[in-house]
Each structure stands twice: as structure tokens, then as C-alpha cells.
Design brief:
10 strands, globular, Rossmann fold, three-stranded antiparallel β-sheet, alpha/beta, single chain, binds magnesium ion
């Protein structure tokens, strides 16, 4: 009798644990789609001796890429929710995309190739009726319905705002701002200039920490979506408007999301004459 009771209690406990881990039939699949170039990786066009020491570099075909800071933690956070699916959508060739994703590993040893729900490549872009000589992102567009038909539960992170099939789908694109080139320290930008070079410490710092900030955005938006029953893309897109990613500027909201995830590493190099602690305080109110 004692054993029967024990077995019944054990079975009930196991079932309730299983129910907690397995999404119920009512839980919709939710999708996060990442663009690849300049969103999860930054191409290093002129590798310096300093950058070549960095363990976050990967070589794919004949190019060197920096895996943007915070990516693995962000992916792991998304995957901690059983109904979440992660896909990648890039204008790059399929072979390149697969090799690149196979070289980025999570802490548990799985590669992004292994955890991906779908990988969309150049072959999966739709051809537009664009004038001869138009830019690549005008001639070809991403079609998010190839990932999921339930667009309410889908958001894509992209550094190109108009690389999408139509204005309806644009409502599901979270623009992360035009990407700047990766520099190990802000000091390395000295003597360089150009459209893609960080103009000041704030820009450099935000460019490096974008995925950390977006992880904070996701946590809050996901919770709101689940608790209040609001479509996931809506809770995410609303927060895009809270940030100044397009202008490469920190604001209060960016700082809040950043602080949810990461504290400042005070050992990192900083601009001449300014302590990293001072800089951090002025930037994000520490
Ligand atoms: Mg891109």
C-alpha cells in the first residue's frame, strides 16, 4: 500500500514536471530570426596583430569574422524557452552560411548549425523588379513567411532595414542600426575615419554591446508576450522604438536593458585620460 502511494505520488510529480518543460498545445511557436553579416558576425577586413589574438575570430572560406559579443549567451537565453525557434536568414551563399554557423559553438558544445530551426540563404531570397544597377538589397529581398506563416510570433534582427519583401513584413524586423566595423579598443580607431568607423567611445561601446542590449530587450518582451498574451513580434517591435540603435546612441532604456545582462568589465582598455569606471558612469549611470 505504502509503495502504491509512493508510486502514484512519484508519477503525478513527474507528469507535472514534464508539463512544465513541454510547451502545451496552446503555446504558439515563437521565432527569432537572425541576419548573419554584421548582425551576429562582423567581417574583419584588415586583421591587425591585436585582433588576430582574439579567440572570437573564425575563418570561413577566405574571410575572417569576429563573432559579436554576447551572441552565445543570447542564443542560450532564447533556447531556454521550449517553444522558441531560432533561424538565420542571410543573403550569403548557403555553403558559406552553413560553414560559418558550424563554427560558432554554444557553451554546451552545440553549434548554431545544430540548433537552427531553418537556415535561409541567397537561394531563398525573392527576386524583385528593380532597375538595372540597383543595390543587392533592392534586387533581392528576404521573405519571412518562409520561416513561419504565423508572423505575429516572429521577429528578425537585421542591420539592413529595407532588406525585406514588403512593408507588412517590415513590421517584424527589429532594426539594430547600421553596423560599424569591429575594433578591439576605441584607441584602435585613432587615425582612421569613414562611414563605418565609430566616431566616439559611446558609439564604439554600443556597437560592441548590441547583442547584450538585445538580450535584455528579449527577456522583457518575451515575459510581456507570455504574461499578457500580446503577440511576441509586437512586444519586441515596441521596444525597438525605445532604443536609439539607428543613431548609435545610448539612452536610459538602452542602459536598463544592458544592465539586466552585463556589468561593466572595468579591466577593458579605455580612452586616454578617462578611467573606464568614469566612462561607464557617464554612459550608463553606474
Ligand atoms: Mg546584415
Amino acid at each position: 500500500m505504502k509503495w502504491t502511494c509512493f508510486l502514484i505520488i512519484f508519477a503525478l510529480f513527474s507528469c507535472s514536471r514534464l508539463a512544465q518543460r513541454t510547451p502545451s498545445a496552446k503555446t504558439p511557436e515563437r521565432h527569432v530570426v537572425f541576419d548573419i553579416d554584421w548582425t551576429i558576425v562582423s567581417e574583419i577586413k584588415k586583421p591587425t596583430p591585436e585582433i588576430l589574438k582574439n579567440k572570437r575570430l573564425i575563418k570561413v572560406q577566405d574571410k575572417t569574422y569576429y563573432v559579436n559579443e554576447g551572441l552565445e549567451e543570447f542564443i542560450a537565453e532564447i533556447l531556454s524557452h521550449p517553444e522558441m525557434k531560432i533561424s538565420f536568414y542571410s543573403g550569403g551563399e548557403s555553403i558559406r552560411n552553413q560553414e560559418l554557423l558550424s563554427k560558432i559553438k554554444l557553451k554546451d558544445g552545440r553549434s548554431l548549425l545544430q540548433i537552427a530551426y531553418k537556415i535561409m540563404s541567397k537561394e531563398d531570397l525573392v527576386i524583385m523588379d528593380a532597375p538595372v544597377g540597383a543595390r543587392f538589397s533592392e534586387r533581392y529581398k528576404k521573405d519571412l513567411t518562409k520561416i513561419s506563416k504565423d508572423m505575429d510570433q516572429l521577429i528578425m534582427f537585421d542591420d539592413t532595414p529595407n532588406f525585406i519583401k514588403n512593408s507588412e513584413q517590415a513590421e517584424h524586423v527589429f532594426f539594430i542600426g547600421k553596423a560599424l566595423e569591429h575594433y578591439e579598443t576605441f584607441l584602435e580607431t585613432e587615425g582612421t575615419s569613414g562611414e563605418y568607423v565609430p566616431k566616439n567611445y559611446d558609439e564604439w561601446f554600443l556597437n560592441n554591446k548590441k547583442l547584450v542590449v538585445l538580450n535584455g530587450v528579449f527577456r522583457e518582451a518575451y515575459t510581456e508576450s507570455v504574461e499578457d498574451g500580446i503577440p511576441f513580434s509586437e512586444t519586441m517591435k515596441k521596444r525597438e522604438g525605445f532604443l536609439n540603435m539607428a543613431d548609435h546612441e545610448w539612452n536610459n532604456q538602452t542602459s536598463i536593458y544592458f544592465k539586466k545582462i552585463q556589468k561593466i568589465d572595468f579591466s577593458r582598455p579605455h580612452p586616454k585620460g578617462v578611467s573606464c569606471q568614469q566612462m561607464a558612469r557617464s554612459l550608463i549611470g553606474f
